[in-house]
Specification:
Elements lengths: L4 H15 L4 H23 L20 E2 L6 E2 L4 H5 L5 H8 L10 H14 L1 H19 L7 H18 L13
Antiparallel strand pairs: 1-2
Helix pairs in contact: 1-2
Length: 180
């Protein structure tokens, strides 16, 4: 026999009232609250309501002066790792979940434009390119002329060690009983 929501709410509140002293006002409030909670659960189970309350298109969530967090629907200038950690997500996981590219900044368009303008004014792109070229040149100079194949040497050493183990006699371990 399937119970109605009212019967289930009454049973829950009766069980609660048997363990704690409740006034009639408290019982009525508890019944209403329990019934509403059960009703919400039932609508979610039946698919009547979405599990996520905010149905915003992810591409439209990034606006000129704010970005809407698709997890809670709040507006931010920038979605930081700390903000997303409240929902158990990293920025990479958030991007993947909502279909953003890996390079998409999780910030308002005006903030991204301001940073881009500052970076260009400071010449950060050119400095980064020069630093990468210098690092590559240094790595090329520091590379050894002819390196011995390390993987083959490790395999040979492992074979020798295994052969030595097979050839060595096994030691017997004698355990003595403790006196009580």
């Amino acid at each position: 026999m399937i119970k109605s929501l009212t019967e289930m709410a009454a049973e829950i509140v009766a069980a609660q009232a048997s363990h704690a002293v409740m006034a009639s006002d408290e019982m009525v409030a508890a019944l209403k609250k329990t019934f509403d909670a059960l009703k919400n659960i039932k609508t979610i189970e039946e698919g009547g309501a979405e599990a996520e309350p905010h149905a915003i298109d992810p591409k439209k969530s990034i606006q000129r002066n704010y970005i809407i967090n698709l997890e809670d629907g709040k507006k931010y200038k920038q979605l930081t790792a700390r903000t997303l950690a409240k929902f158990g997500l990293t920025p990479a996981e958030y991007r993947k979940k909502y279909g953003f590219t890996a390079r998409q900044p999780l910030a308002a368009k005006s903030l991204s434009a301001k940073r881009r303008k500052t970076a260009k004014a400071l010449g950060l792109g050119e400095k980064l390119q020069q630093a990468r070229k210098a690092k590559a040149a240094a790595a090329k100079k520091a590379a050894p002329k002819k390196a011995a194949p390390k993987k083959a040497a490790r395999k040979k050493a492992a074979r020798k060690k295994a052969a030595a183990k097979k050839a060595a006699p096994k030691k017997r371990v004698v355990r003595r009983k403790k006196k009580s």
